[in-house]
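## retry 2 of 3
previous attempt timed out at serialization; input unchanged, resubmitting
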Amino acid sequence: MLRDTGLVFVYQTRRLMRSPVVIVVGIMQPLLWLLLFGPLLKGLTAPGIDSSEAFDLFAPGLLVLLALYGSLYTGFELISEWKAGVVDRMVVSPMRTAALILGKALRDVLAIGIQGVILMLVAFAMGLDAELTGVLVAFGLFAVVIVMASTFSYAVALTLRDENLMSQMMGFLSLPLLLLSGVVLPLSLAPDWLRHVAQANPFYHVVMASRSSMAGDFGDASLPIALVSCTVLTVLVLRWAVGSLRRV
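## retry succeeded, writing output
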């Protein structure tokens, strides 16, 4: 399994290196959020939030935003490969079925991880105050989220096998996941019913965990909740993706 996953990862990484523009384009949306929306937070006045801390709450959430939008649409590539017959040839090869999904997901971690590093460097240049250990913990969660979201995208792609249907589904899912994650503003400002609904969103817990870790609060309950929920979901969607791949 490790050998097959490594072979797929190297192959996919070589393809990525031949199109580095993908990394540049992928970083543009979170950078625009950071550069155009971030300065507005410096004058924010809200209950329980100091204007000097608003940017420190916003920047960690952008990592989750990057993981969300960078991963949910990776399945389009797999649909193209399926239509070209590449997936069929891989399925009938001696390769472990799960290795195709895991290798591609790890390639996504590399590509989106590079974008995440660039994003954090710009955030620090704009005044982000975070501990290095906390940033490393946040990047660990960031990697787990990418694997989870990418694997989910591949599972949906192998189930639908249609770009139009997948585009509509991902557009429908991404907006509530984003709004209920508290990326833009903390959900402590939201009414009680909205905070209760957000508890079912794994991205909400990851955002809270990223903010807590970057603030140096490693005892926050959001850290184990985010890690366990994302790990369990990754296993479930991986089983779904592998089952769909075997039915190709």
